[in-house]
Amino acid sequence: GVTTCLRFPGQLNSDLRKIAVNMVPFPRLHFFMVGFAPLTSRGAHSFRAVTVPELTQQMFDPKNMMAASDFRNGRYLTCSAIFRGKLAMKEVEDQMRNVQSKNSSYFVEWIPNNVQTALCSIPPRGL
Fold first, then answer.
1. Is 119 in contact with 10 (CB distance < 8 Å)?
2. Among 25, 47, 80, 98, whose Cα sits 20 to 30 Å from the Cα of 31?
3. Cα 113-23-50 angle, rounded to 5 deg
4. Residue 18: Cβ within 10 Å count
């Protein structure tokens, strides 16, 4: 989740304030939109490994957002993607670069390096 970097050791130890301040230069534009992937119920058991491209696609799906919104009606100022589990950081960064280049019209161009990735090696419980 969003607080993963606070609770577990990882390559990026951060907090929500630092993410907001470092990624968006204007305080009036600090609006968090949280998306979760894979989004499953507590009783559901998935025995299939989910790939980084699938996770990334699900992360931006409006059905997986915790607020009712559709990114097609606006633009992302920045994006912070926090992955958990035994994943290769290179694969994560390559996939996020791929998402940003394919969907460049949904990201503002006036904030350079507006995609931040973090990887926590401790997988979510049950996955």
1. yes
2. 98
3. 75
4. 12
Q: Locate 51 and state its tokens.
A: 């790939």
Contact 14, 5 (CB under 8 A): yes
Residue with tokens 């394919």: 102
Highest mean pLDDT, choosing among 73-82, 92-101, 116-125: 92-101
Q: What are 4-55's pLDDT values in tens digits?
A: 767 776 555 456 666 666 677 777 776 777 888 876 666 666 556 788 999 8
pTM for the model stands at 0.75
- The whole-angstrom separation of Cα 60 and Cα 70 is 9
Domains of the chain and any CATH numbers: 4-39+48-120 (3.30.1330.20)
DSSP alpha helix (H) spans, 11-106: 16-23, 52-59, 89-102
What letter does residue 73 receive in the DSSP assignment? G
The rounded radius of gyration (Å) of the Cα atoms in the chain is: 15
Query: DSSP character for 8?
Result: S
